[in-house]
Design a protein that fits this description.
Subcellular location: Mitochondrion inner membrane
Number of strands: 11
Helix content: 25-40%
Family: Belongs to the TIM50 family.
Strand order of the largest sheet: 7-6-3-10-11
Strand content: 15-25%
GO cellular component, one term: TIM23 mitochondrial import inner membrane translocase complex
Radius of gyration: 50 Å
Largest sheet: 5 strands, parallel
Structural class: alpha/beta
CATH superfamily of the domain at 203-319: HAD superfamily/HAD-like
Keywords: Membrane, Mitochondrion, Mitochondrion inner membrane, Protein transport, Transit peptide, Translocation, Transmembrane, Transmembrane helix, Transport
Main location: mitochondrion
């Protein structure tokens, strides 16, 4: 026997759902309760119901209605769509138009991405404020450390300096020492102690490398090429008898290593080699300070092509014209 039930959903239930139920047809399909394993032979279908109402229509009309049903068995759900609310029936309030000119709904709801962006902005502000406060505290601690009282070792160094009894005086003294440590060469004594007689030389000759002993040029066809000054081998061999030759260049070691190996492969002429880290910084320029050579400045002679390199001791220097390799 077929049973017909009518369900009516209130408007409040349709509005409370996150997704609205759109009904395209008032008649829902049959829901079959028959077991698939059963056969029609064992359980024959029930006879069609007899309708005694006078308005039921002719038997031919009943057969046509039965043929329209998609299933033979089950419960038919007849839902009244008049009580449901269509999604298109909800229109936006007046005065709110979309991009295409049609009216769109505007609510006070916020997207989840907006809340996440607000949380990320708040976290970034907290981190920025924490970093600023940390920098201020660190700077204050550094100023306090520079202006603190002198210890025993510092008192021996600064006892005759001006301002040792004031906070800002001690701060200035320590700052000058730090700046001097950055600008000066990496070692106080760049060369070892002189050899004893008769192995030592009475004088020290400091030579530059680039554009004095050699000259480098670059071209698209050959790349880098280095030319040696004419008569350089005789010059080094002869002066090495009377001078302790020191090669002092402002170039890093890895740049001029191969060139020095070509100039003096047996280390017979050049006694010592000094590079960029042995120079002093003075007003942003590299300067060669012979006071750190561990030699008597009165017995030191410098040959260079740049007057800025010998600006601290110009009386000990001979400035020559640069060599141009061809």
């Amino acid at each position: 026997m077929m049973v017909t039930r009518s369900f009516r959903l209130p408007v409040q239930l349709a509005l409370s759902r996150p997704r609205m139920l759109l009904i395209r047809s008032q008649r829902a399909p049959f829901v079959s309760r028959s077991h698939p394993a059963r056969s029609n032979a064992t359980n024959p279908p029930p006879p069609p119901p007899q309708n005694d109402s006078p308005n039921s229509g002719s038997p031919s009309d009943l057969d046509a209605k039965k043929s329209d049903a998609p299933f033979k068995k089950g419960i038919q759900l007849d839902i009244d769509a008049s009580s449901l609310v269509d999604a298109q029936s909800i229109s936006a309030p007046s005065g709110e138009d979309g991009q295409d000119g049609s009216s769109t709904q505007r609510t006070n709801a916020k997207a989840r991405s907006d809340s996440n962006s607000n949380q990320s902005d708040f976290g970034q502000r907290i981190m920025t404020q924490g970093a600023i406060i940390g920098c201020i505290l660190l700077a204050g601690y550094g100023v306090w450390m520079l202006g603190r009282d002198l210890d025993e070792r510092e008192h021996e160094v600064f006892h005759d300096k001006e301002g040792v009894n004031s906070f800002f005086g001690r701060l200035k003294l320590r700052y000058d020492v730090m700046r001097e440590g950055v600008n000066k060469p990496v070692w106080d004594h760049l060369l070892p102690d002189p050899l004893p007689y008769p192995y030592s030389r009475p004088y020290t000759l400091v030579l530059d490398l680039d554009q004095l002993l050699v000259a480098s040029s670059w071209s698209t066809s050959h790349g880098w090429r280095t030319a040696k000054r004419p008569g350089l081998d005789y010059f080094l061999g002869y002066l090495s008898q009377w001078y302790e030759i020191v090669l002092f260049t402002t170039q890093p070691f890895y740049v001029v290593e191969k060139i020095i190996e070509k100039l003096d492969p047996d280390r017979r002429y050049i006694a010592y080699q000094l590079f960029r880290e042995s120079c002093r910084q003075s007003d942003g320029k590299l300067v060669k300070d012979i006071r750190h050579l561990n030699r008597d400045p009165k017995k030191v002679i410098m040959l260079d092509i740049n007057p800025e390199h010998v600006s601290l001791q110009p009386e000990n220097a001979i400035v020559l014209e640069p060599l141009e390799g061809r």
